[in-house]
Q: What sequence folds into this?
């Protein structure tokens, strides 16, 4: 018998629809029920590809006795954090403040007014390592609620007041400067281990995609060799480790060292946002250096996204699960899809190629993961003469792996993450002469326009999610507006289609109307969104760009395209927080630092005019796109006359062809260098020398 989640669209919520727990979706009706019954609310937050979410579901939420106790004494609400990042952010802040750490599944006990009073993450079914069992927690909360209600209410009100008082300003220290950016670089240098290529200590390593983007842009602006070396070292460390799927391409969510001095092993989820960000970063590394390794990784990651995450409606699914069925036992275990033994390699490849693959990918008889299996790594490059043989091995292993039970896929389309994918695929397609990737980017952008702007309320807003071509009920948050606008702006530069600039303008105008505070700071939710106990506001970048820094980047790029001083001023005010936080915590505001590099460089405005059928125009356009000048915007097409006719972009206004030939104009703040018809001269003006002619 199904519970109330059976009518939801979230794959994560649907996974709990058959639990004996009488789950409610997040709704006013759920809180009204708690108020009427006089019981507390238990909020459980997770997501589809979360390993420990599945573990707790199996241990506790599928258990009849536990469920019966939950149903009798609580109103139980289940939330998909990817659908409601605002709910997740507000209560995760409370969890972290109270316990010193966070994670998923997140368990929060609160009053019928949404005021939290007890917190935790994963609770085991029996006491373990000093942690109470889930049933002990439930009983303890129930006892406190019944016997010390006034004390519980006081605690909840105090926590709520403390959270409500945490609103941030824009920074108050002015714009990022060359000095503050240099201090951020210095701090990153202290955090970087050149021997391993990773930033920070500890046993868990997340991909530093946005930090690498900052380093590449800083190198392009200043020539800092240290910045370039850290970017290259971090990218090489990621791709040689088991973070990168050596057979199928794409990246897992993070790697960790399970044993002292042991190898790094992945947490096997594959998230769309990680792969979109890293695809773009490796493409930009290739653009800056011409690295063959960076080119291969960018393309393999792009191909992975299209092959395994693209939905039938043209968007991109959120994630692949960490777990899958073991082919022998049928039990769902972490990494079953990705791990190999030497014997399995020989079974697929034969003795000689199996032994070569084991040596090449670090597969040992003892195993580097669990049960004698290994996750493939790339300890070192093999002999160049074996490149064709290794490519054949990869193809055969990928085909053999496809016969294994595949990890589950969360088919929910998240607007923000699809915006990141649009930008990555559009640029990869342009750089590497892959028009199919540009087409996939355009199809995803079309889906965002067709479906995600079709909000059920009829308001001209952006919806957070869709599934199976049907829009979800949850409103978009700031990161959706910022990342989708960024995707549209990248697509406009690549395709020369001005309609994408228009859509981006619509989104950044809504950012100013709905999310901006008077002091220039930005909130994560619109001013007329559902009122939670606190209006979430966080400028720090975690696994993906924060809404704050994503919106700042889109505002800046749109201003460079159009000359709008209002949008530039809004971007500058939002970037005050980067000046304040960048030198102190650069790893947690990497995207903001990258946007600040664009601000300090201009960003440059590149207009390439000519007849669309002229091959010389295509060559100039490609060189412009290959430029490493931080955050440069590119417009291409026919010149635009003073009356607005002709080219689709404002940057093309009154640009003339020199000698009747396609011509490029490189400008800063709309003051232009000498126009050129020479691709080599243009390469020098935009920093495209590394890949000119490649």
A:
């Amino acid at each position: 018998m199904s519970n109330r989640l059976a009518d939801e669209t979230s794959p994560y919520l649907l996974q709990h629809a058959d639990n004996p727990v009488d789950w409610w979706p997040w709704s006013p009706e759920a809180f009204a029920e708690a108020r009427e019954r006089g019981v507390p609310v238990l909020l459980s937050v997770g997501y589809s590809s979360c390993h420990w979410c599945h573990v707790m579901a199996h241990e506790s939420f599928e258990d009849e006795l536990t469920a019966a106790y939950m149903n009798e004494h609580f109103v139980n609400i289940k939330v998909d954090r990817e659908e409601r990042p605002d709910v997740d952010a507000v209560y995760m802040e409370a969890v972290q403040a109270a316990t010193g750490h966070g994670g998923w599944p997140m368990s929060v006990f609160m009053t019928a007014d949404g005021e939290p009073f007890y917190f935790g993450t994963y609770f085991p079914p029996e006491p373990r390592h000093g942690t109470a069992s889930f049933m002990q927690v439930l009983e303890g909360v129930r006892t406190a609620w019944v016997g010390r209600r006034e004390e519980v209410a006081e605690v909840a009100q105090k926590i709520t007041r403390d959270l409500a008082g945490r609103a941030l300003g824009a920074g108050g220290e002015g714009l990022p400067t060359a000095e503050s950016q240099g201090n951020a670089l210095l701090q990153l240098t202290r955090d970087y281990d050149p021997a391993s290529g990773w930033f920070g200590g500890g046993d868990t390593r997340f991909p530093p995609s946005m930090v690498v983007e900052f380093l590449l842009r800083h190198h392009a602006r200043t020539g800092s060799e240290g910045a370039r070396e850290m970017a290259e070292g971090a990218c090489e460390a990621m791709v040689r480790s088991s973070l990168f799927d050596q057979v199928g391409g794409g990246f897992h969510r993070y790697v960790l060292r399970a044993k002292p001095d042991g190898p790094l092993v992945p947490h096997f989820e594959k998230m769309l946002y990680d792969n979109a960000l890293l695809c773009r970063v490796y493409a930009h590394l290739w653009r800056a250096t011409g690295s063959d390794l960076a080119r291969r990784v960018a393309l393999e990651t792009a191909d992975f996204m299209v092959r395994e995450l693209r939905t039938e409606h043209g968007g991109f699914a959120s994630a692949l699960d960490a777990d899958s069925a073991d082919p022998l036992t049928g039990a769902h275990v972490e990494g079953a899809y990705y791990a190999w033994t030497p014997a399995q390699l020989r079974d697929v490849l034969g003795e000689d190629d199996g032994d070569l693959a084991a040596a090449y990918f670090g597969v040992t008889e003892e195993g580097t993961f669990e049960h004698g299996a290994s996750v493939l790594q790339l300890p070192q490059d093999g002999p160049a003469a074996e490149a064709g043989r290794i490519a054949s091995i990869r193809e055969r292993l990928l085909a053999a792996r496809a016969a294994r039970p595949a990890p589950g896929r969360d088919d929910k389309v998240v607007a923000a993450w699809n915006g990141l994918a649009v930008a990555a695929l559009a640029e990869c397609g342009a750089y590497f002469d892959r028009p199919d990737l540009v087409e996939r980017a355009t199809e995803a952008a079309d889906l965002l326009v067709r479906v995600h702007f079709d909000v059920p309320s009829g308001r001209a807003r952006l919806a957070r999610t869709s599934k199976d071509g049907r829009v979800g009920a949850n409103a978009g948050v700031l990161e959706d507006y910022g990342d989708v606008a960024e995707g549209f702006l990248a697509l406009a530069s690549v395709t020369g289609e001005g309609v994408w600039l228009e859509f981006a303008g619509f989104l950044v105008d809504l950012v100013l109307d709905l999310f901006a505070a008077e002091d220039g700071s930005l909130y994560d939710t619109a001013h007329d969104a559902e009122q939670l106990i606190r209006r979430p506001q966080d400028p720090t970048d975690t696994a993906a760009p924060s809404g704050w820094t994503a919106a700042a980047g889109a505002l800046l790029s749109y201003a460079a395209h159009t000359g709008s001083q209002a949008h530039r001023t809004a971007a500058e005010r939002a970037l005050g927080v980067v000046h304040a936080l960048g030198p102190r915590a650069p790893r947690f505001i990497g995207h903001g630092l990258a946007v600040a590099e664009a601000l300090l460089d201009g960003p440059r405005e590149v207009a390439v005019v000519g007849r669309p059928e002229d091959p010389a125009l295509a060559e100039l356009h490609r060189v412009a796109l290959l430029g490493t000048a931080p955050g440069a915007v590119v417009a291409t097409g026919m010149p635009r006359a003073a009356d607005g006719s002709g080219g689709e972009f404002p940057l093309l206004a009154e640009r003339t062809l020199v000698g009747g030939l396609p011509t490029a104009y490189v400008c800063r703040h709309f003051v232009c260098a000498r126009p050129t018809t020479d691709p080599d001269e243009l390469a020098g003006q935009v920093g495209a020398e590394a890949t000119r002619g490649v």
About this structure: The two ends are 60 Å apart (CA to CA). The mean pLDDT is 92.
